[in-house]
Design goal:
The protein contains eleven helices and no strands. By secondary structure, it is mainly α.
């Protein structure tokens, strides 16, 4: 039998025992921390994913994107639909005068164009073509806002026309609505004349002379311009994407004169909206607060 003390006799075994105790204590602390986290998560109503924390960054990004999309949609809904409806309730049906007149004008010219003599009269009064003299094209352009394309469903166009003019009139006032609608249509009309003057080629921007005998888009350019202008001044990226994106898809799917005029109307409305915001930022224009418009 050894005469040495136990702690002196087997120092290595004692050190191993100390390490084992430390490991057990550390494991107990880790388990306690995990249990505390689970209790805290259950108390907050948060459920941990089955796979641990591996999906947390992706879930966080998706939730942030969903919240951003929800806030954007809610803001656009209130800015472009809810606020104008409140303004309509405040001002009454008289606030929709431009929208009603535009729809009645389209219905009148469409009914008149169903007869041969009426179609000739409509073309002589409101038909704008690229090969017309400039003074005559400018004279017919205001009437062309009410002359629908005969190859398109008129009632679907009237619905879009009413919504565009009604929302714009409630948000912008009659003066600005007429200005944006006329400027968008005129931009397309004048741009076609420039493309015809360029001639075929020019990397696809020029147009052959026979296109000069095609009628312009009528009220659709005004509709596109009004929706685009509203999306810019009301900061509605989803409405802008739907409006501008649909025009781009239309131009790619069916490259014709109407598609070009619609793209030009979108570009003109964007420029007008940015200029409006810049001038308003300098204090020269009142904010679009949906008060009773003065012009």
């Amino acid at each position: 039998m050894s005469i040495l003390r136990p702690e002196v006799e087997r120092p290595r075994d004692r050190a191993a025992d100390d390490r084992a105790r430390d490991d057990r204590a550390g494991g107990d602390r880790v388990r306690e921390d995990r249990a505390r986290d689970r209790r805290a998560g259950a108390h907050r109503g948060v459920r941990r994913p089955p796979g641990g924390d591996r999906g947390a960054p992706r879930d966080g990004a998706l939730s942030r994107a969903a919240r951003f999309a929800g806030r954007t949609l809610r803001g656009e809904w209130h800015g472009i639909v809810v606020d104008p409806l409140r303004q309509l309730r405040h001002r009454g049906p008289g606030a929709l005068l431009l929208a009603v007149v535009a729809c009645l004008g389209v219905i009148f010219f469409h009914a008149l164009a169903q007869h041969p003599a009426g179609a000739t009269a409509v073309r002589a009064v409101g038909g704008v073509q690229g090969d017309l003299p400039l003074w005559l094209a400018l004279l017919r352009t205001p009437v062309s806002l009410y002359v629908p394309a005969l190859d398109l469903p008129v009632w679907a166009g009237i619905t879009q026309l009413f919504l565009a003019f009604a929302l714009a009139e409630l948000a912008l006032g009659r003066g600005r609505t007429l200005l944006v609608a006329y400027a968008s249509t005129l931009a397309g009309t004048l741009s076609v004349r420039v493309m015809l003057a360029m001639g075929p080629g020019w990397w696809g921007f020029g147009l052959p002379p026979e296109v000069g005998r095609v009628l312009d888009t009528g009220p659709s350019a005004a509709v596109v311009g009004l929706f685009t202008f509203l999306s810019v001044v009301r900061r509605a990226p989803i409405v802008f994407t739907l409006t501008g994106g649909s025009m781009v898809i239309e131009s790619i799917a069916e490259p014709n004169l109407a598609g070009r005029e619609h793209l030009i109307a979108v570009a003109a409305a964007v420029v007008m909206g940015l200029l409006h915001e810049r001038v308003r930022g300098r204090g020269r224009l009142p904010a679009l607060s949906f008060g009773p418009p003065t012009g």
